[in-house]
Specification:
Layout lengths: L2 H14 L1 E6 L4 H6 L2 E3 L1 H10 L4 E5 L2 H10 L4 E3 L15 H10 L4 E5 L4 H5 L3 E3 L4 H6 L7 E4 L2 H11 L4 E2 L12 H10 L4 E4 L5 H6 L2 E2 L2 H10 L4 E5 L5 H7 L4 E4 L14 H10 L8 H16 L5
Parallel strand pairs: 1-2, 1-3, 3-4, 5-6, 5-7, 7-8, 9-10, 9-11, 11-12
The chain binds 1,3-dihydroxyacetonephosphate (13P) and iron/sulfur cluster (SF4).
The site of iron/sulfur cluster has 14 residues, from loops.
């Protein structure tokens, strides 16, 4: 790591009164220079309460948009303008409107991995950390449309015992992990605990011991007596997991579980983003106000675990 660049980042951060937020899937070096690392829920909470003037969001676009929606007076920048989330782009606002026309009485819950336009047309937003609690808080006699992740949706169906109207979206990184990967890893590490993210396929989730968001994985290993963990999510989570449990061994279920968009952030781009306040993330006010309503509910509902 180039120390000169790191020093320049620290100086500019102070000068601009900026805060650097990074998702748990960001490259290790980016996580290490960030002021706060976390899962989507934790980062949204941080973004809504920071007193900084500038938020440098090291993650993907929907996360930076969420920060802007919750903190409109702050300048929100993304070091790489093309860091998107393919899952978020799997449903458009028009497609969601079509679904709402088909089920006019249903409530709409969207996963935070969605565009601002989709959030604006939803009643509630959730992350993988609080999706179950959020759906459980909704009236039982109401139908619920859940978009865009079918796999998180099926996890919520199983945990709440409710039928949801699902959309066939998915995370390309998580579906790379196959049931054979889990079986193979278990054979080599028979006493390991298998942790899987709810975005994984149903077959993988069935083979896992626990289903957790990235933030919940960090809490789980802290309190667990186990010393070996098979990790079925994006592999960079192993960096913060090792910090929490330096004595434990973390085995990636699949080394192919890499999110290419999360890897677009580099220290050079973080420095450039602070120098030139690029690339600024904006959300049209009409969309922002509508999306804010669904997001506010999300940051209020904290997960049980
Ligand atoms: P969490 O960090 O909220 O578990 O989300 C995973 C993810 O895929 C973010 O894009
Ligand atoms: Fe999107 Fe999957 Fe990457 Fe998360 S890991 S940002 S859901 S593509």
């Amino acid at each position: 790591m180039n120390q000169r660049i790191l020093n320049e980042i620290q100086d500019l951060k102070a000068k601009r009164n900026a805060v650097i937020l990074a998702h748990n899937y960001q490259p290790a070096g980016i996580q290490d220079l960030a002021d706060f690392c976390g899962d989507s829920l934790g980062l949204s909470v941080q973004a809504s309460k920071t007193t900084a003037d500038v938020i440098v969001f090291c993650g993907v676009r929907f996360m930076a948009e969420t920060a802007k929606i919750l903190s409109p007076d702050k300048t929100v920048v993304m070091p790489d303008r093309w860091a998107g989330c393919p899952m978020a782009d799997m449903i458009t606002a028009e497609q969601l409107c079509g679904l709402k026309q088909k089920y006019p009485d249903a409530l709409v819950v969207c996963y935070v991995n969605s565009t601002a336009e989709v959030k604006a047309r939803s009643d509630y937003c959730c992350t993988s950390a609080n999706a179950v609690e959020l759906v459980n808080s909704l009236p039982r006699d109401k139908q619920i449309i859940f978009v865009p992740d079918q796999h998180l949706g099926k996890f919520v169906e199983e945990r709440t015992g409710r039928d949801l109207i699902l959309w066939p979206g998915y995370c390309p990184t998580h579906v790379f992990i196959g049931e054979d990967d889990i079986r193979r890893a278990r054979q080599v590490h028979p006493s390991a605990v298998v942790m899987a993210h709810p975005e994984c396929s149903e077959l993988v989730k069935r083979l896992a011991d626990v289903l957790l968001s990235t933030g919940q994985m960090l809490k789980f290993v802290k309190d667990s007596p186990a010393t070996e963990f098979i990790v079925a999510t994006e592999i960079e989570i192993i960096h913060p997991l090792k910090k929490v449990r330096p004595d434990a061994e973390f085995i990636p279920a699949s080394t192919r579980a890499v999110c290419p968009n999360m890897k677009k952030t580099t220290v050079e781009k973080v420095l450039a983003s602070l120098e030139s306040l690029q690339y600024e993330v904006t959300v049209p006010e009409e969309i922002r106000l509508k999306a804010k309503k669904s997001l506010e509910r999300m940051v209020e509902i904290l997960p049980e675990k």
